[in-house]
Amino acid sequence: MARRFESALWHARALSALAQLTLIFVGVTLAFVFEGWRKQLDEAADIRQTIDGLIVELGHYEKHGGDLALRMEQSVAAWRTEDRAGRRAVLDLYRIPGAPYPPSAAWESAVSSGVANRLEPALRLDLGWYYSENRGIHANYARQLAFQEREVMPRTLQGAAAFYGPDGTLRPEFRVHLQLYEEFAADLKRLSAQGGDLRRKLKALRATM
Hints:
Layout: H1 2-84, H2 105-113, H3 121-156, H4 172-207
């Protein structure tokens, strides 16, 4: 009788231990599953927030880039109207206020956080090319702006004659500056349109999330 009791007791303890081990295993497994699920949710939220930031950033350039390009073109057109009429005119070109570089924090954050790598390869390539082209073109403008502030703006105080040579035509350095200025205005319009295309692609992607 005692042996049967001990055997039954041992069997009961073994079952209890097995049940406890099973509960521990299930609990640990569920914890890992929950943690993985939580990480997936966090990553999905990060991707959505990054895309939202890019949409706002690209929309900013789409609007303001086009507006600035128009003001630059208008200032050139005003000068050409006077010059073609045979009247010497001050080369009073529109100067973009503030920093010469547009905002790019959303894209830099997407790259540094690794979220950019989760985007579809073709879209990631298009965005990378766009921001690289954007920065390069605005670096060119920063150099033109330095020339404008150093050489052009002081001469506006001297009058129109300071911009013309003895033959009555615009001096070579100012012709080059004017050409580069017009090229930058054209680049602004192009980048503005491309920014709009990328913004619409990201909005379409965001709608699926």
